[in-house]
Every structure is written in structure tokens, then in C-alpha cells.
Amino acid sequence: MSTDFTYYILCIIAIILAAIIIKRVAGCMIKAVITIILIAALAYIWFMYLR
């Protein structure tokens, strides 16, 4: 149970950090790339560890 909780916490931290980075970095293309990388990382965590 603690491992699932740990991964949820890591996902929340990743989302918060991505939001901060997106707010500070200018440019629509960079925002799109960061969003795609974040979605891919969260999908990887979901399919590899939580299912």
C-alpha cells in the first residue's frame, strides 16, 4: 500500500513542477513538449507500477 501512495505523491509532485515550469517558460511549442513528456511519464508509471 505504501508503494501506491508513494507513486501517487510522485505524480502530484510531477504535475506541480510541470505547472511551475510551464508558467515560467515562454513559448507554446515548449509548453506542448513539456506536456507531452509529462503525460508520457505518468502513463508509464500508471501502466508499469499501478496496474
Architecture overview:
This protein has 51 residues and is mainly alpha-helical. 90% of the residues lie in helices and 0% in strands. The chain contains 2 helices and no strands. Helix 1 packs antiparallel against helix 2. The longest helix has 23 residues, at 2-24. The two termini are 13 Å apart. The model has no long low-confidence stretch (mean pLDDT 81).
Shape field? elongated
Measured on Cα atoms, how large is the radius of gyration? Answer: 12 Å
Structural class: mainly alpha
Cα distance spanning the termini: 13 Å
Largest sheet: none
Oligomeric state of this protein: single chain
Number of helices: 2
List unreliable stretches of 5+ residues. none
Helix content: over 70%
SSE order in H/E notation? Answer: HH
Q: pLDDT average, as an integer?
A: 81
Total strands: 0
| Strand residues, percent | under 5%
Labels describing this entry:
90% helix; 51 residues; mainly alpha
